[in-house]
Amino acid sequence: MSGNKAKQRISTKDMVLIPLFTALIAVGAFIKIPMPTCPLTLQWFFVMCAGILLGSRKGALSTFIYVLLGLIGIPIFTGGGGFWYVFQPTFGYFIGFILCAFLIGLMVEKKVNVFAACAVATVILYLIGSAYGYVILNFYSEGDGMPLGKLVMSFCVLPLPGDIIKIILAGLVGGRVRKILKIA
Fold first, then answer.
1. What does the pLDDT read at residue 9?
2. Contact yes or no for 37/158 (Cβ under 8 A)
3. Distance (Å, rounded) from C-alpha 29 to C-alpha 46?
4. Strand 40-41 to strand 32-33: parallel, antiparallel, or no bridges (unpaired)?
């Protein structure tokens, strides 16, 4: 591999932006806005913005670093940090964050509307988060488990109003910043 090709992959700008979005996602975990159904955090907003502004690979990398830092014990998840988080019903959302940042970036790179990209990714995030939560709650955790209807209500329906707001804001902010920075 030539030196120029390696230089193109990680530029100084990327070395700043990737950790910046990792930090924004971490900070977003602790910004809680009370909502009638469930508290709204800004993690998903910053994950969507990472995909929109950094693109598929760099957005996913930024999100992967966030998840990795939390898993090694840095308390950047809403409930702290540590490997034990993989046994939490909501850990599926973290897996989904990585994939969805990639998919949002890929869709935007292919000129899909940013709002549509974020909406599609939110549906995918709900599918991954709910499936993981169902497995943990019904096959791993002690207790009676959680019926599918209640799980869908808790993991998809209740957070939906807040996530619609985040989709709109990420689309507006991300789309506007892309135009200002002339990101193709």
1. 67
2. yes
3. 10
4. antiparallel
Quote the CA–CA distance of 134 and 147 in Å, as a whole number.
8
Domain locations in the chain as residue ranges: 12-181
**pTM to 2 decimals?**
0.91
Please tell me the distance from the alpha carbon of residue 135 to that of residue 137, in angstroms, as a whole number.
6
CATH tag for 12-181 (out of 3.30.420.40, 1.10.1760.20, 3.40.710.10, 3.40.50.300): 1.10.1760.20
Q: In Å, how far are 10, 19, 59, 68, 147 from 16, measured between CA atoms?
A: 10, 6, 13, 18, 44
Residues of the chain with pLDDT under 70: 1-9, 36-38, 184
Rounded Cα distance between 32 and 140, Å, is: 29
Helices (H), 89-184: 91-109, 114-135, 148-152, 160-181
